Amino acid sequence: xxxxxxxxxxxxxxxxxxxxxxxxxxxxxxxxxxxxxxxxxxxxxxxxxxxxxxxxxxxxxxxxxxxxxxxxxxxxxxxxxxxxxxxxxxxxxxxxxxxxxxxxxxxxxxxxxxxxxxxxxxxxxxxxxxxxxxxxxxxxxxxxxxxxxxxxxxxxxxxxxxxxxxxxxxxxxxxxxxxxxxxxxxxxxxxxxxxxxxxxxxxxxxxxxxxxxxxxxxxxxxxxxxxxxxxxxxxxxxxxxxxxxxxxxxxxxxxxxxxxxxxxxxxxxxxxxxxxxxxxxxxxxxxxxxxxxxxxxxxxxxxxxxxxxxxxxxxxxxxxxxxxxxxxxxxxxxxxxxxxxxxxxxxxxxxxxxxxxxxxxxxxxxxxxxxxxxxxxxxxxxxxxxxxxxxxxxxxxxxxxxxxxxxxxxxxxxxxxxxxxxxxxxxxxxxxxxxxxxxxxxxxxxxxxxxxxxxxxxxxxxxxxxxxxxxxxxxxxxxxxxxxxxxxxxxxxxxxxxxxxxxxx
Length: 505
Fold this sequence. Notes:
Layout lengths: L1 H5 L1 H19 L9 H15 L15 H10 L5 H28 L2 H12 L2 H7 L5 H20 L3 H15 L7 H4 L15 H23 L10 H9 L3 H4 L7 H29 L5 H21 L9 H4 L3 H19 L3 H25 L8 H8 L8 H11 L5 E6 L4 H10 L5 E6 L7 H9 L2 E5 L13 E8 L6 E7 L3
Parallel strand pairs: 1-2, 1-3
Antiparallel strand pairs: 3-5, 4-5
Helix pairs in contact: 2-6, 3-4, 3-5, 3-21, 4-5, 5-6, 5-8, 6-17, 7-18, 8-9, 9-11, 14-15, 14-17, 14-18, 17-18, 20-21
């Protein structure tokens, strides 16, 4: 009881932040249609859950398996596979917000700034988007934040147990996505923290280097578990799709740099919005205050950012998420600077001043975030994400309706469902919910130049349906023997997800 009374204010803040976080992440979690990549990852987890031989299934597409492994656990307790997959990101985001709190406190030694950092993360629009989707990126960010926090802790308190924990955190990160190798690549920059006037600086650096090497050894040991699969080499092949290998990059080192940089900056601006940018700038005005702490945050943001601009072959806004949250502690410090400045100038109530400024700087990001939750079609998130996750053929508008329709149709008799596509949204989104129904057979086809003989033969034996959702077949060629059952517009695109019945001759 004494502990509760002593820390009552902090406990209330923790409860408030936890409530706001889960409210903004779980509310209407199924409101957004299933995105193509979500269908892939969730279906992988579903297959791996039911067959232990497929625990490395993500390697078939060159993706590390950590997200899939965690999703397996969630699926054991949650019936809806999509919600289970999205809750993995919700949980990852909560670990991120906790990591940000500890990181900010360790850097700036101020609990108020740490709590502000948590609030800024809750309403950071890019965090709201990715914490609500069954994608890898929230988990990538969680491991990245905790890796930085533990690295700083190891620097300031060089103990074997911290190095041991750091190794497992980095290992978990690189088992999630290749981007988390930055947690290893950036370790040498902690040399900036050492005082070279200290007589024992060589001893301290050696101790940190040895403990860091121990952490890295553990991380690579965990990563090498993937070599148990014959598909391990697929990771390098997949990375080459998104990032130029050095040999290829040397042929055109700066050809795409400016274009990539412009794209990345525009996405960062669209998500940070003016309020967060202003706070970040304020934090950097007096750079000498916590100079090394600010510098390490800038390094952890800027170097991955520049690397992505230099080497990125195919880039999306979600790729900048793990690095962009390094700016959140800076924004929190900037807001605290502003509060202290105005308090000294006007001598008003610090509590009311803090509340007023929080509302001022959070109201617009909060509006963007809440609009995404309630009205995704018209949300003001980055245009590139809006046109990919929401108003796009890659968004699964119509999937829920078709699942309901096919489930009812299969109650009386066997049915056959053909889909446009063999990998991705179709047929995976349908398989997630219908594959266990013995009356339903689902098969993907690509390319769809005509209605195959197999489908036509099926149509003679049982009700047969064809699902089209890509622009390539909108409209359907008139010679296809199909009768439209229903269609659902894909956001505001004017294109449709369509379910047809195959007409048997």
